[in-house]
Recover the amino acids of this structure.
């Protein structure tokens, strides 16, 4: 799968309270959640996300609450991948489980700038910064996680396994 | 220790760090915010019934008693699911308490359990020697369907607390100090093991507080070894058999921190990260508009006892509101019997029924723009307790109660 999009860049410790504030957690409607995504961190996010669909951030992205509403809101905003130096563990597994690609790379997080155009090749394991004409290698996921991604999320993966029995 | 529990739950002698395993869980927990999403996903999987009606625990505690129509609809959805699935451990308003205070109190958790909950503070049960961690709604949906979920086996960081605790110091000060030391991602993906003579003297309530905040350092587990205090706590509450897992004397740790408690003062984490730990005494110029004493971190009887000791016979500052929230109905009753509730009301505080409410800016104490709170809760991110232009200072119960009297950040010595 190849994702070719421009970058919205954020810093370290982007937490789930700013990704989707708790005052909006009285719904599970992902489109309604998307309306408030990043509202307390970057009031222009929704406008930016119309044209730029990869988030690049620093360390500990998604720290805080276990709310799956956070990756859901990001995904429903049209974001196709999140690349960060590191991810908070619950956010990481939530993103994998709902099929939002999350890529860990300190190098990419350091060198890529706001607005750069990227070509992310998930199966090939590379990220190309078209703006800077630089290519980065990324670590492949363990087999089990690749299985979840291939099924399109943990729910499908589990349903397939139950059926297979 | 956590590694041994994970191995036992996938029927193996040994699992290695970094390995991904599919393990059996002993408890699957959800609340009124995370379960609606989990139930939708559960229905998509199509298992029909939950894997075990005794092992799924449902606690509507975040936006309850319902704060608005949408929250009421979410709770109704969760309630109907619990009824239809014949969930044994569903706690309706009236029996409900804040989940991470409620489950241990009800004897639902025992040492050696592998527990997941769709709430990040599920790591609280590490205080009882359980491997317990927060996950998302989809994980809970899968675990409710199959009784299993995937885990990556974490590496362990050991924290050894030596020396003696100064007056008024509780588990909250130790954990804020620790997070200040290692940072909000200092234990990312890791199991934190708390040990040493200073923590063996801590009450169970203080240990729950420490395990509770492991997640604020990025930790997967925050685990204590079982000792006489743990066993005494369980004896009065749980009828379940359990197996105690202990770390090997030659266990390998990614890192070992030796922390001297002789030097630890009352702590406050300043906005907007729990790792911004400072000595409370250095912050006496910070004026505040609200104090909250409660939450899954510090709403237990020890916390209320300390607050009552400081507030007894005193009035809170006229420039602020103080909201006290016993974490469960039993804690509320005990506080009532001990006379704490009377002390709180006489001093000008308001006492609420159990709810997570203000901790996450839900209800029962939301902050306006420019307002500042001292709170015994666990997070002080931007907008956590209300308006993005408000601020939260995290502390233990002693600093919170003293600050309520002073109208600014204060230590008990300043007001008693």
């Amino acid at each position: 799968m190849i994702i070719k999009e421009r970058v919205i860049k954020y810093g370290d410790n982007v937490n789930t309270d700013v990704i989707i504030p708790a005052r909006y957690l009285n719904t599970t409607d992902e489109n309604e959640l998307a309306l408030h995504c990043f509202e307390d961190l970057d009031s222009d996010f929704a406008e930016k996300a119309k044209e730029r669909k990869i988030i690049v951030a620093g360390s500990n992205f998604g720290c805080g609450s276990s709310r799956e509403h956070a990756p859901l809101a990001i995904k429903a905003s049209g974001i196709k991948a999140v690349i960060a130096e590191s991810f908070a563990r619950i956010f990481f597994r939530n993103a994998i489980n709902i099929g939002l690609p999350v890529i860990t790379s300190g190098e990419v997080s350091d060198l890529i700038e706001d607005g750069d155009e990227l070509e992310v090749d998930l199966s090939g394991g590379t990220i190309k910064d078209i703006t800077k004409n630089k290519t980065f290698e990324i670590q492949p996921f363990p087999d089990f996680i690749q299985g979840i991604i291939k099924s399109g999320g943990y729910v499908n993966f589990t349903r397939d396994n139950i059926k297979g029995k | 220790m956590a590694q041994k529990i994970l191995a036992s739950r996938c029927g193996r002698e040994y699992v290695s760090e970094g390995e991904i395993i599919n393990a059996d869980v002993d408890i699957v927990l959800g609340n009124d915010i995370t379960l609606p999403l989990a139930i939708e996903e559960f229905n998509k999987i199509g298992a029909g019934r939950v894997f075990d009606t005794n092992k799924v625990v449902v606690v509507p505690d975040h936006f309850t008693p319902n704060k608005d129509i949408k929250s009421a609809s979410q709770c109704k959805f969760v309630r109907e699911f619990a009824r239809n699935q014949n969930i044994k451990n569903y706690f309706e308003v009236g029996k409900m308490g804040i989940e991470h205070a409620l489950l241990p109190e009800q004897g639902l958790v025992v040492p050696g359990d592998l527990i997941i909950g769709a709430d990040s503070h599920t790591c609280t049960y590490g205080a009882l020697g359980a491997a317990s961690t927060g996950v998302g709604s989809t994980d809970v949906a899968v675990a409710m369907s199959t009784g299993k979920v995937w885990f990556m086996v974490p590496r362990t960081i050991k924290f050894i607390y030596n020396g003696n605790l100064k007056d008024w110091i509780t588990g909250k000060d130790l954990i804020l100090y620790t997070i200040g030391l290692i940072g909000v991602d200092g234990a990312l993906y890791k199991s934190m093991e708390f040990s040493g003579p200073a923590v063996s003297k801590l009450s169970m309530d203080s240990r729950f507080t420490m395990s509770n905040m492991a997640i604020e350092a990025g930790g997967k587990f925050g685990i204590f070894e079982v000792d006489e205090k743990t066993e005494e706590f369980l004896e009065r509450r749980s009828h379940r058999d359990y197996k105690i897992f202990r770390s090997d004397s030659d266990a390998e740790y990614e890192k070992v921190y030796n922390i001297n408690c002789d030097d630890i003062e009352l702590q406050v984490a300043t906005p907007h990260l729990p790792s911004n730990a400072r000595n409370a005494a250095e912050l006496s110029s910070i004026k505040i508009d609200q104090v909250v004493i409660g939450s899954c971190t510090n709403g237990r009887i020890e916390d209320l006892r300390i607050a009552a000791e400081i507030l007894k016979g005193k009035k809170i500052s006229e420039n602020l509101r103080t909201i006290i929230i016993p974490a469960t109905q039993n804690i509320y009753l005990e506080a009532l019997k001990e006379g704490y509730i009377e002390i709180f009301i006489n001093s000008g505080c308001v006492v609420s029924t159990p709810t997570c409410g203000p901790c996450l800016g839900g209800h029962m104490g939301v902050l306006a723009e420019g307002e500042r709170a001292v709170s015994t809760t666990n997070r002080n991110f931007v907008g956590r307790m209300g308006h993005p232009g408000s601020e939260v200072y995290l502390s233990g119960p002693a600093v919170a109660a003293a600050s309520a009297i002073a109208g600014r950040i204060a230590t008990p010595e300043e007001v008693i």
Remarks:
- Chain B has a mean pLDDT of 98.
